[in-house]
Structures are given as structure tokens and as C-alpha cells.
Design brief:
This protein has about 375 residues and is α/β, with parallel strands linked by helices. The protein folds into 2 domains: about 220 residues, Rossmann fold (3-Layer(aba) Sandwich); about 130 residues, Response regulator (Rossmann fold, 3-Layer(aba) Sandwich). The chain is built from 13 helices and 15 strands. A 5-stranded parallel beta sheet has the order 3-2-4-5-6, with helices on both faces. A 4-stranded parallel beta sheet has the order 8-7-9-10, sandwiched between helices. The protein has a 3-stranded mixed beta sheet with strand order 1-12-13. Helix 3 packs parallel to helix 4, helix 5 packs across helix 6 and helix 12 crosses helix 13. It is globular and about 70 Å long.
């Protein structure tokens, strides 16, 4: 596959690295804001773990441009206000050249004006398309956009004879963005939304919303949110005896969701996800295969827990920043931003990234596969 860059070969194999001796210059400081604690910790913890793991690997190989890198991590505790405090500190005190994260859409949208003002590139680990649409000059992101996920869900539903759906979305930034796309893309996809229910991110009982949906003509339910809400919905759905298919967003693509929902309650749930959580089922010839296998093996050996899509988003964010520093031969924020925007054919755990001045996500629908939860695990659908 000519022109494509496999990160595992380019970075971890040492092609980015100059010099093998002692580091003489000041380290290149890269900031990171993750929800290591709080409700979104299932996102932020694997992201923090991954960033530190990749930091170690880069430095063991010689660093970037002959300099050690230092990933400065702050925990926003799943609170957008604390993310704003963290970004101020990273830019003004720590003098970072780029920032990866935050974990959530709300925190990313809260800090976006700060990175624009400070002219420091941000590669977010949150999914909503609102992060990069309209395009902000210094803001990029690694997760697949919600619009791509909605298209995958509706395509799968139509293929399986489903034309009427109920949507059940969180009232936070991620859920609201998903709700907007679910409604706007329905008619274009040949799907009718016959029920539109909302839940609070901290709600512990969704029986009222599900009972309303049960009384409609819906043939399937599409839930949009991140834990714990979707897990509550999975449990309540089973308790109410609702048998229609349940689709989730890629916001639950980790084993933590199955753990919170319970294996029996999660059985059969469908969602679009990156190939990372089904890495063993990916074809050997696929351009992501070696990278996915390497990352999963190293992460699981170090942290004694399965990989998740969310850790992969951080892997990709730091990988993209590292590649931008290498290709631009500079660790200055403006040069990193310019190099990021020129990224083409860059394979990482989420997919193949090609950024342009009008596209700061750089992924296509091919970054997704449809998966089904089967016997407490993940099954990639053909």
C-alpha cells in the first residue's frame, strides 16, 4: 500500500528518532488533559495510561529531534471547568508545544477557545463533530465523528429491515450532538424516528423513557451517551422485557460497558467501533493489523487490563503530534499545527488519518466496523 505510513514502523520502530545518546536539550513538553477520575474515568484512565506508555517508548528509542519528550498530564476529574484551569496551566506555566485530550466533548468544547487564543495545537480524544465543525485552526481530534457512527447504525438497521427507530440520548454535549445527527440523517437514510427521549448523564433509572418507547412503532432503539447511562438502559431494557434490537454509540466501546451493564443485559447489543477492540478478528493483511496487535499486547502486559477504543484515541493523538514534529522538523506550536494539517495516509489505531484545512478529523466511515456483544465479548460483524 504505497504512500501509507504505519505508525508502528515509523515511530516505535525508530524512524522518527534521531540520536541514541544522552539527551542534551530541554525536553519537548506535550500537555494532556484526561478524565482520569470522575464519571468519565473509563475514558480517561486508559488514555492517561497509553500516553505515558507511548512517552516511555519514544524516549527509549531516542526521543524526537534528538530531544526527550515529557507528557504533562492533568486530570480534569470529568469537569469542563477544571479542564479550562488545566489548559491555562499547560499553556502559560508548563509552556507545552501541543495538547492531547480532553476525554469528553464537553471539556474539549470548553477549552477550544483557549487553545485558539494561545495558538497551541490540540488533538482531542472526544468524538462529537462539533469539535471540528466548523473548523478551528488549532483544534483536531482522533475519534470517529458521531455523524459517521450514525451513518453506520442506520445502514445496518436498513439492511436488517428496520425503518422505524426510537432514539434515547444523553443531555450532555456528546449526547446532544448525537441526537442532532440521528434526527438530521434519519430521513436521508430512509429511517423514521418515532420516539425521541432524553436522559441525564447521572440518571439511575430509565424505565419511564423505555416504557414510552415500548408503546411506539419502533423496531429498534438507538442510545447515545457514555457510561453509566447506557449501562442503565441495557439493564432496564432487559427488566422490561423489550426484545427489539438496541444500538449504542461508539461512546461505550470498552469492556467497562459490559461490566456495568452485566453480560446478560449487554448480550446482542450492536454498535459501530474501531477495529482495536476486535483486533484479533482483523484480517492479517489489513494495514492496521500489526499496529493493533502490538499496542494491545503491550498495553495489556503493562496494565493487566484489556485495551479500549479510548486508550487508542490517546495513542493516535500523541502519535499524530509526534509525526507532525518529525515531518515538520520543528517542535514549535505553529509548525506542529501546520504539519498536522498536512498529515496524509497516516495509519493509527482508529483508522487512516488524512487531515486537510477543511477536515480536522481526517477519517472516513472505513474507520468503523459494526460489532455485537456476544457472550461477554466483542464480535466483528461481516
Amino acid at each position: 500500500m504505497e504512500g501509507m505510513k504505519l505508525f508502528s514502523a515509523a515511530l516505535l520502530g525508530g524512524a522518527l528518532l534521531l540520536g541514541g545518546g544522552a539527551f542534551a536539550a530541554e525536553p519537548i513538553r506535550i500537555g494532556a488533559i484526561f478524565s482520569v477520575t470522575g464519571p468519565a474515568a473509563f475514558l480517561g484512565e486508559p488514555e492517561r495510561n497509553t500516553a505515558k506508555m507511548l512517552e516511555d517508548e519514544i524516549n527509549k528509542g531516542g526521543g524526537l529531534l534528538g530531544r526527550k519528550i515529557e507528557v504533562v498530564v492533568y486530570d480534569d476529574e470529568s469537569d469542563p471547568t477544571k479542564a479550562v484551569t488545566a489548559v491555562d496551566r499547560l499553556i502559560k506555566k508548563d509552556k507545552v508545544v501541543a495538547i492531547i485530550g480532553p476525554s469528553t466533548t464537553g471539556s474539549t468544547l470548553a477549552i477550544a477557545p483557549k487553545v485558539e487564543e494561545g495558538k497551541v495545537p490540540l488533538v482531542s480524544c472526544a468524538a462529537a463533530i462539533d469539535i471540528v465543525s466548523p473548523v478551528r485552526r488549532f483544534v483536531f481530534k482522533t475519534p470517529q465523528s458521531d455523524v459517521l457512527a450514525v451513518k453506520q447504525i442506520y445502514r445496518h438497521a436498513k439492511k436488517n429491515g428496520i425503518s422505524k427507530v426510537a432514539i434515547l440520548t444523553a443531555s450532555d454535549a456528546f449526547g446532544s450532538a448525537g441526537r442532532k445527527e440521528l434526527k438530521e440523517l434519519a430521513e436521508k437514510s430512509g429511517v423514521a424516528v418515532v420516539a425521541d427521549e432524553v436522559f441525564g448523564p447521572k440518571d439511575t433509572d430509565m424505565n419511564a423513557q423505555l416504557t414510552k418507547i415500548k408503546g411506539t412503532a419502533a423496531q429498534a432503539i438507538v442510545c447515545w451517551g457514555t457510561n453509566p447511562g447506557p449501562a442503565v438502559i441495557a439493564r432496564n431494557r432487559k427488566q422490561l422485557g423489550i426484545s427489539m434490537p438496541l444500538y449504542m454509540s461508539h461512546g461505550v466501546a470498552s469492556n467497562k460497558f459490559i461490566e456495568l451493564a452485566g453480560k446478560e443485559n449487554a448480550e446482542g447489543i450492536l454498535l459501530p467501533a474501531g477495529r482495536l477492540i476486535v483486533d484479533e478478528q482483523v484480517a492479517e493483511k489489513h494495514p492496521q493489523k500489526k499496529l493493533l496487535t502490538k499496542y494491545a499486547k503491550e498495553y495489556e502486559a503493562r496494565f493487566k487490563t484489556p485495551v479500549s477504543s479510548f486508550g487508542g484515541y490517546a495513542f493516535d493523538a500523541l502519535s499524530l503530534v509526534a509525526q507532525a514534529i518529525k515531518s515538520g522538523k520543528s517542535a514549535e506550536p505553529a509548525a506542529i499545527r501546520d504539519s498536522l494539517e498536512k498529515t496524509k495516509g497516516f495509519w493509527a489505531t482508529t483508522g487512516e488519518f488524512t487531515f486537510t484545512p477543511s477536515d480536522h478529523n481526517g477519517l472516513t466511515e472505513d474507520a468503523f466496523v459494526m460489532v455485537r456483544i456476544t457472550k461477554g465479548g466483542w464480535e466483528m460483524l461481516k
